[in-house]
Design brief:
87% of the residues lie in helices and 0% in strands. The protein has 142 residues and is mostly helical. It is elongated and about 80 Å long. It starts with a helix and ends with a helix. It has 5 helices and no strands.
Length: 142
């Protein structure tokens, strides 16, 4: 059940990432959606699971999150160059590299998109947590 909720939150974040807006606006819109999708007591467990998943391969995750286009660019080039050389020199063996290059470039972009969505989920859950703590602190001070 937690896995389903985690995937649901990641998909919501990916949907929100398709819109052009600031991170603060994305977090604000996701706060409402997350509050309806997952009860507050479960949110900390989901946040911890996503954070642990991101820390598994910290270096690779950091690279993908910050530079996915740069990492995918050589593979787009391999695919495009192989296609160009295969057509222009009539070399059928060059076409072998085309699907490999395009597949790897697409997968790197997809992994990076997923890492970015996970970071947005964590940022949103942290924002929700901070809001709840602020309300608790305000109510105890009265």
């Amino acid at each position: 059940m937690d896995k389903d909720k985690t995937e649901q939150l990641i998909m919501m974040a990916q949907d929100e990432m398709t819109e052009y807006s600031t991170d603060a606006r994305k977090v604000e819109k996701l706060r409402r959606k997350f509050s309806f999708a997952v009860p507050y007591p479960q949110q900390k467990a989901i946040r911890d699971a996503i954070a642990a998943d991101l820390k598994k391969n910290f270096f690779w995750t950091k690279m993908l999150g910050e530079n996915r286009q740069m990492l995918a660019l050589p593979f787009w080039g391999i695919g495009g160059l192989a296609l160009l050389l295969g057509i222009s020199f009539k070399q059928p063996l060059d076409f072998i590299a085309v699907p490999f290059g395009f597949y790897m470039a697409f997968q790197i972009q997809k992994w990076g998109w997923n890492v970015e969505a996970k970071k947005l989920v964590i940022q949103t859950l942290d924002d929700i947590q901070a809001g709840v703590e602020a309300v608790k602190a305000e109510s105890t001070s009265k």
